[in-house]
Amino acid sequence: MARFFFKTIIFTLYFKTLLKKLIYIYILLYSGITFSQKRDKNSLLKPLDAYILVEPGDTAIVKLNEFMLLPKRKFKSKKDIRYYFWFKSKVFKVYPFAKLASQRLDTLNTRLSKIKSKRKKKKYIKLIQDYIEGEFSDQMKKLTNTEGRILIKLIHRQTGKTAFQNIKALRSGWNAFWYNTTANVFKLSLKYEYHPASVNEDFLIEDILQRAFLDDELVRQKSKLAFDFQEIAVKKKGEIDVEVYKKLLAKQLQRYKRKQKRKKQ
After folding, report:
1. Which of 43, 103, 125, 169 is deepest in the core (most CB within 10 A)?
2. Is the dihedral of CA 100, 104, 109, 111 positive or negative?
């Protein structure tokens, strides 16, 4: 009886070991079949005309999508990261305006080139001006000084001309001067230019844009200004300087506290 019981235990252990091996083999075989099926399905391009036969002495040309390699961002402190993302939110807010303005101006210039009559050109320009002012004016009034400055710089980036030059092309020089004077009341100038290679703020704007393009956070619109940002970024070594905004926000906080004290008094 004891011998029979002992044999039963041995057989049970053997059966369990065998079952584990069978399950393991099944998993391997199933994985291999699944992998081969996926490989067979996806490894070949269709139609076969898409293939290039390369023989000794031939050169194969493969067209790749444009991409950019940027160095890892280097912040002086964790607090600086917060200021960087604060500035990023400003860029994200105004970029669509600059992008749309560039598209509108391109359309305007294309259509103007087909209109020969000066009178009709003036009439069409006036029509576009009214449309743009109606489309943007309410939203533009809500922009902060920082957002307004970024927008003016981005207009230069997107159109290749300063906001002042764009207005001057559509209106008289006097009106351009008046618009510039009005902007200066809010400590802004419509003559702001965009120089990511030499101006820290412009570098930050471009860094934010390029990383957003790579991450599909914003729709890419190529700059009409000539600069190689990858080369600029490599020279900067990924260093992020947000000291100006730390001081700016510190002043704003002090003003806010003063106002609160006055209210209590």
Report:
1. 125
2. positive
